[in-house]
Write a structure and sequence with these properties.
Elements lengths: L2 E3 H8 L3 H10 L5 E2 L5 E4 H8 L21 H30 L11 H4 L16 H16 L1
Antiparallel strand pairs: 1-3, 2-3
Helix pairs in contact: 1-2
Length: 149
Amino acid sequence: MAKVNLSQAAKLTGKNRTTIWRHIHSGKLSIERDRDGLPFVDTSELIRVYGELEPVATSDTKKKPHQATYNYEDLIAIVELLRKEQAEMKAEIENLTNRLTYIPEPNSKEQSPVTQSKKPEDDPDWPKEIKTMADIILRNEIKKIHEQS
């Protein structure tokens, strides 16, 4: 019979290499050593201990078909869709950025709540929690407005 190393024995039996080693140390499975001292097992010994062996997977020489390539018109259409999506995303980012940095101008005729208040924390636009850098910037701007008035 053929002789295999412990990794091959594990594949043939469907067991883990640790299990193979445990069975060797317990005496359930016997091994031989080659001239370099490396362990190997006879396949008949594997059959005796574990029963029928699992078939070894052979490399499939058949070529698998590759994915079909898109034609030129489809690729152009995909690029145009991506450009449109990119433009929409840029517009959304700009909109969100503007919303984060927007500070309403107080009317000159009526005083804003900011100028009526004594503390910057009383301002209705004061962020209660600091979650982003924009919150810190907004707090600093509100403090400056209070210092000027």
